[in-house]
Amino acid sequence: MSFQAKIPTETLCEIFHLLCDTQPILLHVLENGSDGFPWVIGQVCRRWRAVFLSHPPLWTILSLQAWECHFSPVYLAEMERRTAVYLKRSGQLSLSITAELSERAEPEHFPITIWRMLLSCSNRWKWASLDVHLTDSATEDLLGCRGTFSRLEYLETKIQSPEPPYHVFEIAPRLINLHLSDRGFGPGYIGKWKFPWAQLTKLKLDTEVAQGTNQLRAALLQLKNVEELRLETLPMSAFIVEIDKHSPVFRLACLRRLDVSLDLAVTLYWFDTPLLEHLELSGHLNFAHRSEPEISKEAIASLIYRSSCHIRRLTLEDCRIEVVRVMLGVRALTASVEELFIDHRASDGLSRVIRDINERIYLPKLHVLRLKCCFNEFMAATPYLLEARGEELELVTSHDIAPLRRVTIQFRSCRNPRCKDQGFANDCPFIKFTNTGDRDRDQPDSIQIEHRLGSRKPLIYDLAGRIVYEEP
Questions:
Q1: What are phi and psi of 101, to 5 degrees?
Q2: What's the confidence (pLDDT) of residue 425?
Q3: Which site in 6, 70, 255, 294 is 20 to 30 Å from 202, CA atoms measured?
Q4: What pLDDT score does 162 carry?
């Protein structure tokens, strides 16, 4: 008896499920690759194929894409046949649906029958991502599903239609995670949608900065149980939102994580967040307004003083060095920070920030520092990193200052010509700290480049000489 035949059916099903758990079935691709999951499973032996075809969880993740696709009638007919087969194989299990349909697809090429097949199972949708430009008939089909999304827990939607179905998801008793984008759809798009806002625990809004904020505020006012809130704008925006700082403050009593683009930081004047502990600020490196960091600084300080919250984890992503230094100068913000993450895309300035962390910036409780930068910036900052306050280093002059126990460094692709001159290509080199001296010493005394390319694993170095490698 072969090894494959000895594996119990229940064990096979569990293995198949683990292997295929994140692999969608592509409804628009008929050329199923024989060297990838899930199809390769059915080629091992007859028994494996039978188990594979009869195990419903393997058929619950479906993806439909039609970007500038011109499906022939024969191709569409085969897509429809396979979609019906896959839905039948999924049994009555909950479905994860991804639909990306472009307005550039001609009406005669629009996969309307497949769209209707997916909607016929809307009562089984648990996870849905809809980036679609719908025809009138497709919109009517979606509106006909109102009230049927009884299992839906996660929804990511960017729907464009002559008459958008603003009320279709109003009844979704289990919906707790929503990602809504209004990019390119005009003012008021977010405010027109009807969702069960009060029951959401996670909300992400992508909004145009140039639009007014009345609709945004109206949506946020309906939140009652949100724990994670993300407010993001277009990366290349050059606008600053203006609001009335004296608008009535409303409480987000359950909010623990807040991610906000700096050009939307003024909206922090609206909130009272007593449980907030993780703040992430993103800047996109391209603000045209030099006064913007000070505006954001005032809004953040106002939020912290008003809410009496304690920020334990602070993330600064894609911010200019000037912005990073301004944000780290808010003592009300940094006084309670235990973990600091700086994602630095520019080619210089990081070493100044590390030096300031050691000398001037008030971070009394900081014990985890995470950096994401190019190799050149890492080399420039290394002397200051090695001087950082370790648990047993004499640099700690006050018992009120917590020791820095861990530094994480992850390298990003670098397009700086100076890196090329030094022989480093545009990828993430793999760096290894080595301690070639006395093993009792707290600091390594050399840096060794193991490979130039290939690995994206971050480096973990804990200032006591111990090196750990972990996945990002």
A1: -125, 125
A2: 33
A3: 294
A4: 79
d(CA 143, CA 129): 17
| DSSP 8-state symbol, 58 | G
**What residues contact residue 365 under an 8 Å CB cut-off, 6+ apart?**
335, 336, 337, 338, 402
Residues in contact with 430: Cβ distance below 8 Å, sequence separation at least 6, in sequence order:
449, 450, 451, 454, 455, 457
Q: Would you state the pLDDT for residue 423?
A: 35
Q: What share of the chain is helix, strand, coil (3-state, %, to 5)?
A: 30, 20, 45
Q: Strands 446-451 and 430-434, how do they pair?
A: antiparallel
Q: Which residues pair with 232 in a beta bridge?
A: 206
CB 342 within 8 A of CB 318: no
Query: Taking the chain (472 residues) in consecutive chunks of 10 residues, what is each chunk's mean pLDDT?
Result: 68 74 80 63 75 83 79 86 92 92 64 91 95 86 93 92 88 95 70 91 82 77 94 64 79 95 87 94 61 78 92 89 85 91 76 78 85 74 64 44 72 53 35 38 34 40 44 40
pLDDT at position 451, please?
Answer: 30
Q: What pLDDT shows up at residue 394?
A: 42
b/e 281-314 (16+ beta carbons within 10 angstroms → b): bbbbeebeeeebbebbbbbbebbbeebebebebb
Question: Which structure tokens are listed for 273?
Answer: 């967040």
Contact 369, 344 (CB under 8 A): no
Query: What is the pTM for the complete model shown?
Result: 0.81
Q: What is the pLDDT at residue 346?
A: 66
DSSP string, 92-160: T--EEEEEEE-TTS-GGGS-HHHHHHHHTTGGGEEEEEEEEE--HHHHHHHHTTTT--SS--EEEEEEE
Per-residue pLDDT at 250: 92
Question: Angle formed by the axes of helices 46-54 and 9-20, to 10°?
Answer: 70
**Paired tokens of 10:** 């229940």
β-pair partners for 158: 131
Burial class (CB in 10 A: 0-12, 13-18, 19+), 392: exposed
What DSSP state is assigned to residue 408?
E
Residues 6 or more apart whose Cβ sits within 8 Å of residue 205: 180, 181, 182, 190, 216, 219, 230, 231, 232
